[in-house]
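job 3f2a | input accepted
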Amino acid sequence: MTVSSFWSGCGCVWVTPVARPSWLKAPRCFLSRCADRNTTLTIWLIAGVLLTTLPGCNVVGFFIQALFPQKINAKYRLADRPTLILVDDPADLLGNHTLVNEIANHAAFHLTENKVLTDQHVIDPRSLYDLAARLGSRYARTPIDQIGRELGADQVIHIYVALVKLIDQPGLLRPTATVHVKVIDTEQGKRLYPSAQHIEVNPTAMNHQPVNVALRPYTFQGDGRDKISSLSRKLAKRIGRDTARLFYDHLPRQPGDPLED
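job 3f2a | predicted structure (261 res):
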């Protein structure tokens, strides 16, 4: 399909088909030609009905989005340099300390998979356990930038777990979570994202970027312990992925895509 003309009056782009390539112009039988005419007529009838029933340029916009999907832009462009992903869950809202690593590992996977960071620039989050053991009681009071420097990071992606909810009502699981994300420069000890300038020009902005995550609801019987454990892990993986998406362009869910777990 190519953009070939401008539909005046509503400012929308009208899409028309490209001319059929010569190698597709082989002679066809009479029945084949009739079938093509009927199919074409049906398509134009459907398009006509849509154009007359949907207001304005909605239908054209729908087809344009389906044919040329627009990506959601990154909120911040991370520099490819030594990076620590630090997940902070002081209230143990996740209910399982291994899920902290699950979030960090999945964020790292999507950042490297989408060419934001190279593998050698991702610091193993398990190194935090060694640092915590070395610092003892001082670890909880250690500033984020200092933790990063101790582990050789130039920047830290800090993910603070602010809210986790699994059970909506008896017999119904509706896993949701909110995390607060910021990026800290370890050399200067300042916040890179959200930047001070961004907060100054956006009165409603905060000193962190909230990321809200929700899985589709599930029903369960009995105590549901196994299901809760499984969904908690899925929720952690989704937190990691959606946090990483702050830092690269990505496609939104497209019409017809299956629902995510």
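job 3f2a | The helical segments are 30-53, 58-67, 98-113, 127-135, 144-150, 196-201, 225-244.
job 3f2a | closed
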